[in-house]
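For concreteness, we quote verbatim a single protein encoded this way:
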Amino acid sequence: MRKRHVVIMAVGLALFGFVVAKLGWSELVQQLGKVCTALPILLALSALRMALQTAAWSGALHVYGIRASVTNLIGARLASRAMGYLSVLGPLVSEPMRISLLEDQSQEAMTASLIDTSVYWVSCWLFSIFGTLFAVQAVSGQKRLGSLLTLAPLVIGVAFLMVRRKPVMPALTRLLRDHSPAWLRKGEQIEVQIREFQTRHPACIRRMLGCGVLCQVLFGAELIALFLVLRIPCHPSTILGLEWASRVVRAMGGWLPARIGIDESGMAAAALTFGLSSLHGLAIALARRVRDMSEALLGLCWLAFHSRSAAHKKRESPLAQTACA
């Protein structure tokens, strides 16, 4: 581990300790005792999300005639998520790793995986937009409903991009010409593939988007379960707004391994913003951390087993060829 990574983790731990010291250990332990009763529900909801995401990914692969093992799809997603969660680079590590862990390494398999990711991110964007609307309403109240109108172009723009069949990025790359960066040209290729897939297989896209939307609903259900055990009134604006805030916190802390200290301090601040106790926000963040660490542990265990099996097959293959000869 590099020195800067150690320094970053130390800063995160110091931030976490500072937040807990300010709020008080005894009160936090009391809240955690309540939250522990909701952990089985969080793990069950996480398993449902994994089933939906696997169904969407498998559906995209089936379109290309790829019959992937459900166990391999789940294991690859868990392992890549674990490495992204524990590393500094986050999503820059997890997505390429998820594709590399597939049994099929063809171009079609990579395209199907990228389509699966893109459709899931569209569902995340939809949920984030609604979360933003409710967050603004919850914070501003009825006095500043006009501020919601400022988000209307964003809602209309995302809806337009979803319905539009013609790719957007090729026009941008033509505009930039020789100054177009490599990542933009790669994005153009991916968007063209996604648009072609959307045109040829609209029913599959709708099923994948439906699975993604249900996954977002399950994230909200996690907060509802935690609100119930903490005896917090469940208002839709608070649920959606706090879930939106937690995603902003995760995005900002993605560069920190396991987002140590960022999740806790961010959720404590978000809870105060929405009129809740900062202890409630900290307890919610810690409950979700237990869930994330459980998933990461399962992913690392699968990765170790998968690596050992792959190495064993490589050792056996020359012996098998020799025996056949």
Notes: Confidence is low (pLDDT under 50) at residues 319-325.
